[in-house]
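Example for tutorial group B:
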């Protein structure tokens, strides 16, 4: 291994330098996100990290399913060649919940010839952003993260229930925007704020959502890769904050029966790199044709990427009428029943909100998927369906009903496969079909209850 420069700590963000300042750095966690968005990698003493400018992991980490099984490699022999991982110092951030002084660093993933590995989720998002850059566009996103705090659950056969609040009562549902509801688990929220500050992350706001123990965190708008990195880090941060107070944080799309699901709403706009102006607005402040092309791209191509936005069998339990989740691809201005909402804003902030993504999706792939649809819309220059002016829940669904159907649509969409990368889509489909096959082999309590003696 060649030695890194002695001043690598000078290359990391100010928040990370402030965290280490005046203390001995003990450990560095070298990580990448796998297909599910799980952190993979290795931890090493800081004294060793400073003398390594790379490390190696097999490409099979992108063939692992959420259950820990391995999908067959659909693009070649299963020889597990090593990939080369190099630190992206701009991502260095604290791990403030550890007993010692630890930094986390996301690594770039290349093959042995120095090319970006096309099946690495972060590389998929970088590729989509590069397509925008080639057109003179800079995509801007603002994600919203919803999740549940739940009571510790050590038995998968038992239902998930809300956590106990400071009042001694379990968190109640149907308390959207209630400050008292947030106060019930204020200590967890305090730790989330403290961890985020130490990690250098900006929270735009925290609020109580409609579910029992359900919270939403809004992030400020910005660069897609940087914000995907933040969501990747935030999921771990939030889980660690919850564990400190005897509860779990879950990003399952639908963890509690009868409660709303958790979404990752994605606000998106595009700035011209030449003028610095939002291309969704005309000079007079009106909506541009590009704005309508973007909506049409989402309507025409979102079905093909639902498998990325709703990546598990549980994900499809979100798409239920009147549970604050979309069931179709209608669009409307300030209409929260539609899958594609145009929020109230001035011309500079004109954007479209994609409400389909679940919080269980890999943030890199969720952002890549929605940006890919917009990109295709801008290239195809088609007009969207007429605006929905009423209750979109009254319409028919445009969405696949399960993961298997969603994967079939992805497999049949040549434009989406081309933009996201054919090799990535092939591997992703193999991993997800493996997971779906495993699920279909499980007999549920519902089946035992209603079929055992009645059929």
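The residue assignment follows.
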């Amino acid at each position: 291994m060649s030695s890194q420069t002695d001043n690598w700590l000078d290359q990391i963000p100010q928040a990370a330098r402030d965290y280490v300042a005046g203390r001995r750095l003990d450990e560095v966690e070298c990580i990448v996100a796998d297909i599910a968005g799980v952190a993979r990698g290795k931890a090493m003493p800081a004294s060793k990290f400073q003398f390594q400018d790379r490390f190696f992991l097999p490409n099979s980490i992108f063939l692992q399913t959420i259950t820990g099984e391995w999908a067959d490699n659909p693009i070649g022999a299963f020889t597990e060649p090593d990939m080369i991982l190099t630190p992206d110092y701009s991502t260095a951030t604290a791990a403030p919940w550890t007993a010692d002084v630890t930094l986390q660093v996301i690594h770039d993933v290349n093959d042995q010839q120095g090319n970006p590995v096309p099946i690495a989720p972060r590389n998929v998002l970088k590729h989509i952003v590069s397509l925008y850059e080639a057109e003179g566009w800079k995509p801007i996103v603002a994600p919203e993260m919803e999740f549940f705090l739940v009571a510790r659950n050590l038995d998968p056969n038992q239902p998930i229930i809300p956590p106990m609040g400071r009042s001694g009562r379990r968190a109640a549902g149907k308390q959207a925007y209630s400050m008292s509801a947030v106060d019930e688990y204020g200590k967890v929220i305090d730790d989330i704020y403290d961890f985020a500050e130490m990690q250098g992350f900006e929270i735009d706001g925290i609020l109580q959502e409609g579910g029992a123990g359900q919270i939403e965190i809004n992030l400020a708008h910005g660069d897609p890769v940087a914000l995907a990195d933040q969501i990747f880090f935030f999921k771990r941060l939030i889980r660690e904050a919850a564990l400190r107070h005897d509860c779990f944080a879950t990003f399952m799309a639908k963890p509690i029966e009868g409660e709303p699901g958790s979404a990752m709403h994605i606000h998106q706009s595009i700035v011209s790199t030449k003028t610095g102006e939002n291309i969704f607005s005309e000079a007079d402040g009106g909506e541009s044709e590009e704005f309508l092309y973007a909506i049409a791209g989402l309507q025409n191509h979102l079905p093909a990427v639902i498998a990325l936005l709703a990546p598990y069998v549980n994900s499809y339990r979100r798409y239920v009428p009147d549970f604050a989740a979309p069931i179709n691809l209608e669009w409307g201005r300030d209409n929260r029943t539609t899958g594609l909402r145009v929020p109230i804003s001035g011309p500079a902030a004109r954007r479209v909100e994609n409400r389909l993504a679940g919080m269980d999706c890999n943030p890199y792939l969720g952002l890549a998927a929605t940006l890919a649809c917009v990109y295709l819309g801008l290239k195809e220059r088609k007009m969207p369906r007429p605006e929905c002016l009423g209750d979109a829940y009254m319409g028919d669904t445009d969405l696949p009903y399960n993961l298997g159907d969603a994967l079939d649509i992805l497999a049949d969409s040549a434009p989406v496969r081309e933009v996201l990368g054919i090799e990535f889509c092939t591997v992703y489909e193999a991993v997800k079909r493996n997971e779906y096959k495993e699920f279909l082999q499980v007999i549920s309590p519902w089946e035992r209850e209603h079929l055992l003696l009645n059929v």
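The first strand starts at residue 27 and ends at 33. Compare this with the pattern of hydrophobic and polar residues in the output above.
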